[in-house]
Design brief:
Radius of gyration: 27 Å
CATH topology of the largest domain: Rossmann fold
Strand content: 5-15%
Number of domains: 4
Distance between the termini: 43 Å
Shape: globular
Number of helices: 21
CATH class of the largest domain: Alpha Beta
Helix content: 25-40%
CATH superfamily of the largest domain: P-loop containing nucleotide triphosphate hydrolases
Strand order of the largest sheet: 3-4-2-5-6-1-7
Largest sheet: 7 strands, parallel
């Protein structure tokens, strides 16, 4: 998680279902803000937490407050106010993951730009936690569609940012609608006078916690980031591993389980790779480190805790495969290279929806992180060819080849083949297990760098042209691809539409829409046909994709018919040139999105209706 503490999460008196979720997520040790906030919040005390964005504040308030939620009651017991839609969604998703083992738990993100009708439906069904932006929360209070009279706790997340955005009056108005005896947790990076006044007025004898930022980066480390789609991170990683001029690598992931899974996948692709996590004994950990030092391992996949204090001179590159939630954890991670005056490389993978964490890291370190281009297949081929030539040179200079020269001469005489053809055949045999020109993987929707306004327009133009170009190439013809029927845990009663489902799957999986067939929307679930050979990693990712405020939770129903006809209601086979519309679950303050993709704007009449 971040900076060292002597505590573990098991030391806190959290409810057992939350302890279980924390163990499954793989959190090993609390960050400083978590270590100091969780005990008083569990005890019911008001708290002021002064800490930078990216220090683990969400878990600091979510875990203790969720421990006290009464699941038998279906009205809001916790309200979290956040300055932006993006942060509201992030907090809601984090709380949902922490509450994974709480039966009947419901959290609702509420923000502008989302259908008011959908929010009303979900509020009527009953929720225990509401996470929202001040403006939309006020809208519901005016309509009397949200009752806060039985709240147990209120959280003001990034209070100084809400002040900066002009929400402070709205925050005060909302607090006036809450019970006098509710608990309040206020988190802020700074404490301007307006926030201090809020604290004096609405908090009761608060405990003030200050987390001093100690982040500083090493000038010898070159820092880069790649804006990546989570579905294709492994393909991106292997291209980078191939092309970078490196010695040894350490790849950081968030959880212990992920260290083993990623290490196994890299080993299957031919890399000398090992895992390093908190479940390993000290002897196993030392053995792995020794193998890196000796050169028998080139790559270690590690968690933050397991890599503390690791100092191996061979490590030239650090990759943040999972972006850390804690800015200090980022500094500790990249500090595994560039030590003792040596040069080092740090690469950060950033999903489009994680850009706010990238900005938080840049603010905390005071250094910009430069965008990088994902190496192309041509770059990989050039690198492999160069390495092959180097191997030839080494063999020619160091090995006794007389016997093999005689064998080649004998073969040439027998077969009457030129030396060039024989050499080409031998080169083919030598590279057969690792082709010099790699096969193209499934399409990687690469955002090689964070696009500026012009780049974003070009990207959208390419999106618009692509379906027409595919149609011209004859790629839209029906085929006999084997399909499997999947069930999705989202339906009409949740506000889902065919276009939301198709758009989410197409954009998150990279599948062409011609391979997303026979979408049928029922009352509380939907079904869809997808290719039978769909990559397991894509399916795992789709499990977590949200549509209409709910995760898809995609699950196999059975082998689907290949017939294109459909007689059930709302059943469609989307045309390949239909531009998919993403779920409103992904959003930004500007346009309701975090993934950089274009969305269709609602009509002016619908916008006015939603405002009302």
């Amino acid at each position: 998680m971040g900076t060292e503490t002597a505590l573990s999460f098991s030391d806190f008196a959290l409810a057992e279902p939350l302890q279980r979720a924390v163990r499954e997520i793989g959190y090993e040790q609390p960050s400083p803000i978590q270590a100091q906030s969780i005990p008083p919040l569990l005890a019911g005390r008001d708290v002021i937490g002064l800490a930078q964005t990216g220090t683990g504040k969400t878990a600091a308030f979510a875990l203790p407050l969720l421990s006290r939620v009464d699941l038998s009651l279906r009205f809001p017991q916790i309200l979290v106010l956040a300055p932006t839609r993006e942060l509201a969604i992030q907090v809601a998703e984090a709380m949902q993951s922490y509450a994974k083992f709480l039966p009947g738990f419901h959290v609702l993100p509420i923000y502008g730009g989302q259908s008011m009708g959908l929010q009303l439906k979900q509020l009527q069904r009953g929720v225990q936690v509401v996470v929202g932006t001040p403006g939309r929360i006020q809208d519901h209070l005016r309509r009397e569609t949200l009752k806060l009279d039985r709240l147990q706790a209120v959280v003001l997340d990034e209070a100084d940012e809400m002040l900066r955005m002009g929400f402070i009056d709205a925050v005060e108005d909302i607090l006036k609608h809450t019970p006098a005896q509710r608990q309040v947790a206020l988190f802020s990076a700074t404490m301007p006078e307006a926030i201090r006044r809020i604290a004096r007025t609405y908090l009761r004898d608060p405990l003030e916690i200050r987390i001093k930022s100690t982040t500083s980066t090493v000038a010898a480390i070159r820092q880069r980031y790649w804006l990546v789609s989570g579905t294709h991170k492994l393909d991106a990683l292997t291209r980078i591993l191939e092309v970078e001029d490196s010695n040894a690598w350490i790849i950081f992931v968030r959880t212990k389980t992920a260290t083993v899974e990623l290490a196994e996948r890299l080993e299957a692709r031919g890399y000398a790779c090992g895992a390093l996590n908190g479940d390993m004994t000290q002897a196993m950990r030392e053995q792995t480190i020794e193998r890196v030092k000796s050169g028998s391992l080139d790559i270690v996949v590690a968690t933050d805790v397991a890599a503390r204090g690791l100092d191996v001179e061979r490590i030239t590159h650090v990759i943040n495969y999972d972006i850390p939630n804690d800015t200090e954890a980022y500094v500790h991670r990249i500090g595994r290279t560039g030590r003792a005056g040596r040069k080092g490389e740090a690469i950060l993978f950033v999903a489009p929806r994680e850009r706010y964490l990238l900005k938080a890291i840049e603010r905390a370190t005071g250094q910009p992180i430069e965008p990088m281009h994902l190496p192309s297949l041509e770059d990989v081929a050039d690198r492999r060819t160069s390495q092959f030539k180097e191997q030839l040179t080494t063999v020619l200079e160091t090995e006794d080849l007389d016997r093999f020269a005689s064998l080649v001469a004998e073969y040439q005489s027998e077969q009457e083949v030129s030396l060039e053809r024989i050499a080409a055949a031998l080169a083919f045999l030598a590279q057969r297990d690792r082709p010099l020109v790699p096969d193209a993987p499934p399409a990687v929707p690469s955002l090689d760098k964070a696009p500026g306004p012009r780049g974003a327009r070009r990207l959208e133009e390419r999106k618009e042209r692509a379906p027409r170009e595919r149609a011209a190439a004859g790629e839209n013809r029906p085929d006999d691809t084997p399909m499997i029927l999947y069930r999705l845990a989202v339906g009409e009663s949740h506000g889902a539409q065919v276009k939301n489902i198709v758009g989410a799957i197409a954009n998150e999986s990279g599948l062409p829409s011609r391979l997303i067939r026979k979408v049928q929307v029922h009352d509380d679930y939907s079904t869809v046909e997808l290719p039978a050979d769909l990559d397991r990693g894509i399916l795992e990712h789709l499990q977590k994709v949200w549509v209409a405020g709910r995760p898809l939770q995609i699950a196999v129903v059975g082998t689907a018919e290949r017939a294109r006809t459909s007689s059930t209601r709302r059943s469609v086979s989307p045309k390949a040139d239909a531009r998919p519309v993403l779920s409103v679950r992904k959003s930004t303050p500007e346009d309701g999105r975090t993934d950089g993709r274009e969305v269709k704007k609602p009509s002016r009449r619908k916008q006015e209706r939603d405002k009302r």
